[in-house]
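Tutorial handout. Part one gives the primary structure; part two gives the three-dimensional structure as tokens.
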Amino acid sequence: MVALQLEARGICDPRVLAAMLEVPRHEFVDAAVIDQAYEDRALPASEGQTISQPWIVARMLELAQLAPGQRVLEVGAGSGYQSALLARLVARVVAIERIEALASAARERLVRLGVCNVDLHCGDGTRGWRVESPYARVLAAAAAPHVPRELLEQLEDGGLLVMPVGGPGLQRLETWRRGRAGYTRERHGECRFVPLIGAGAWPEEPRRN
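Part two.
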């Protein structure tokens, strides 16, 4: 997976590649599709959600420019796969998942795998987790029509946010950097993510055309 799907397609951050080698993706997918765990494709997860394809996960981690001492906010923890990857790349991860069943299952997986620097909460990810802000990085694994203001406000000075932005069908990955004069945005490639549901994004599942 790492050699043929990530390095061959341009992922070059050695720390990201090492984390992708170390975290067993098959532990985070449904048993019915475990034989496809290392294919470069999104796979179905419980509660109507998905686990993103390995390349897009690696791309987001690379765009985030992660460093060992950082505290990171993850929005849309899902199965916990990206949480486990982040745990190997930064000092502390504060993760949010809106669906309690997913959050509970993800916590159990992380404990079973010995991941001890992730605090996973159930709540509205569009509101972030202000009590532990500011964060060096914010990563959202679900798409919104715009970046929720509360997520930007919880970045520290110089902090970076990575998330898909756009409609329910097709989005673009965006990075937002907080500086003294405000925020700067860069747009990256197209992507497809499940919608980010909450007060600061979609109020309910948007219809897909």
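Part three, for discussion. The mean pLDDT is 94. The first helix runs from residue 2 to 6.
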